[in-house]
Write a structure and sequence with these properties.
The chain is α/β, with parallel strands linked by helices. Helices cover 48% and strands 13% of the residues.
Length: 544
């Protein structure tokens, strides 16, 4: 009921404006035609085609690769409250990550800082309490009813296609409130294309060392006081080779574990790769440039992916299978259960390459609508349509030669543009000659040329256009089938992505330890903290 300041830009200029608007905290509505010209005309429509808002882009709902930082999560967080208890849910739409954690009111700011949240949702009845704390995290105040825990149960069941939440785990009312508030926001902003979110997982409140905002800032763990990555502890120790590995390392270094067994497990992995240096080096070489399965999968699930996402997933799966083979060839003893588990998970979705490799061409376009991404020989029906399309092109070349011979005009050409389509073009001095021939139908005269068509050429163009449309339609149908195969196996793909990221972090840590002569800490269940001959990684690298 109140005026809202707005501005608009054409879609072809969107990319240059979108980044600036989002980074300043604005929300951007994407409007598209809601009807095709054909259906609009059939129902007697006149004037501009109807348009609807199909998506609202906000800082926390980005999926555009050009606006995302590959080594950093893009978290949207939501605060839930019930009977004096609090919980925070957070999700990264670009990777599908979805977690929830109980927290105290006093810990909200520290948790937001740990996650590096880019947009923070909270109920309007907490505006006065959270206004100052929320300010650095792009706050979005939402109606309190969106955080109702019972409504949240329905949203979660709908998201995962289940009737009860028992299979997911046990959640407090505050956790449900937080998760529901986040899902309600996604439904409103993503309209009909809800993102793919992993199974909601509960993180224990005491599983990580809590670091208050001021301490985190002064320690410069993931960024310096000037908010730069260079010069931080993360920058000094990050030797990862993949985007997913870099994100995992950032998550781990931001949230130190408190469980000794889990810490020892991570250290065991690093020790194993240090002891098996050749295998570790081979794996590092394979990981270099491995495609980002999580973000490809999320784009495909939101109907914003393309053939390159399919090809990228295929290549990542091939690498996963090769890494798994290298690990098993090395010979894994019974004491290295974590290595066995990672090796199994790294290849658990490799069978999908049997569907993708034969179907996809070696070079594919970014957008499916550009066509020519299905490999020749994969589908006989598509090959036949393509043959008709390509033969039409040869027939047009033959028709040009025939008309040149008939008219005795060697410079006669059959050309194509977006206005006239296929047409015959001769220089102005030959225009009168074709004007006098009844088979040539005049279309256009310019200063340098005269353009014509013929019944034969028009018919040939129609057949060719029909064949091209049919070929593209068939490719799009095959694309949808391949995407469905991938999405049906998203759980296996998630396991592979997480395994490759964990292997990346372990091999990178081993490489770091080898390069700087780092030693493994000896853990103890007491308060002793003894450092002998210690060096600060950031200072040492800055001085070196």
């Amino acid at each position: 009921g109140e005026p809202v300041p707005m501005c608009g830009v054409p879609v072809h200029a969107m990319d240059s404006y979108l980044g600036r608007l989002i980074h300043q905290g604005f929300k951007v509505a994407i409007c598209e035609q809601s009807e095709t010209p054909k259906t609009f005309k059939a129902r007697g429509g006149k004037g501009p085609l109807p348009r609807d808002v199909v998506r609202v882009i906000t800082p926390g709902t980005l999926q555009e690769d050009g606006l995302l930082i590959s080594h950093k999560h893009n978290y949207l967080a939501s605060l839930g409250r019930s009977s004096g208890e609090y919980a925070l849910a957070w999700a990264d739409m670009s990777t599908g990550t979805f977690h929830v954690q109980a927290c105290e009111e006093a810990d909200i700011e520290a948790l937001l800082g740990r996650l590096g949240v880019v947009e923070f949702l909270y109920p309007d009845d907490m505006r006065s309490v959270l206004e100052v704390i929320a300010e650095p995290f792009n706050p979005t105040v939402r109606p309190v009813q969106e955080f109702d825990s019972r409504r949240s149960e329905e949203l979660l069941c709908s998201l995962y296609g289940i009737t009860t939440l028992e299979s997911l785990g046990t959640f407090s009312r505050a956790m449900l409130s937080a998760a529901g508030g986040l899902l309600a926001y996604l439904r409103q902003t993503q309209i009909e294309s809800m993102p793919r979110l992993s199974r909601l997982s509960v993180l224990l409140h005491n599983a990580f060392m809590e670091i208050d905002t001021a301490t985190r800032r002064s320690l410069e763990i993931t960024q310096t006081l000037t908010e730069a990555r260079t010069g931080s502890l993360l920058h000094a120790v990050d030797k990862t080779r993949t985007a997913a590995g870099a994100r995992l390392l950032a998550t781990r270094i931001s949230a130190p574990l408190t469980d000794r067994k889990a810490i020892e497990g991570r250290l065991d992995l690093v020790s194993w790769f240090l002891q098996n240096e050749v295998t570790s080096s081979d794996i590092v070489a394979l990981l270099n440039g491995t495609p980002d399965i999580e973000r490809c999968l999320s784009r495909l699930a939101a109907s914003r992916g393309g053939p390159r996402d399919l090809l990228a997933i295929c290549r990542a799966l091939i690498i996963g299978r090769e890494i798994s083979t290298r690990l098993f060839l090395q010979g894994i003893d019974n004491n290295a259960a974590d290595i066995v588990s990672l090796a199994d998970k790294a290849q658990c979705a490799a069978f999908l390459t049997d569907s993708l490799l034969p179907a996809l061409a070696d070079e594919v376009p970014l957008l499916a609508r550009d066509g020519n991404f299905i490999r020749s020989g994969y589908n006989s029906a598509l090959d036949e349509i393509r043959q008709i399309r390509d033969e039409s092109r040869h027939l047009i070349a033959a028709l040009q030669a025939d008309y040149a011979t008939q008219t005795n005009i060697a410079s006669l050409k059959i050309k194509h543009n977006n206005v006239l389509g296929y047409h015959i073009e001769v220089r102005s001095l030959h225009g009168d000659k074709l004007m006098a021939d009844s088979q040539f139908i005049h279309r256009q005269t310019t200063a340098q040329a005269v353009r014509f068509t013929t019944t034969e050429l028009a018919e040939m163009e129609k057949q060719m256009a029909t064949a091209s449309e049919r070929a593209l339609d068939y490719e799009l149908k095959l694309f949808d089938e391949l995407v469905a195969i991938i999405l049906a196996r998203s759980s296996e793909l998630e396991l592979t992505a997480l395994a490759l990221a964990a292997i990346d972090v372990a091999t990178a840590s081993a490489k770091l330890a080898s390069a700087y002569y780092y030693c493994r800490p000896i853990m103890a269940d007491d308060t002793r903290f003894t450092v002998i001959g210690g060096r600060h990684p950031v200072v040492e690298q800055a001085l070196g």
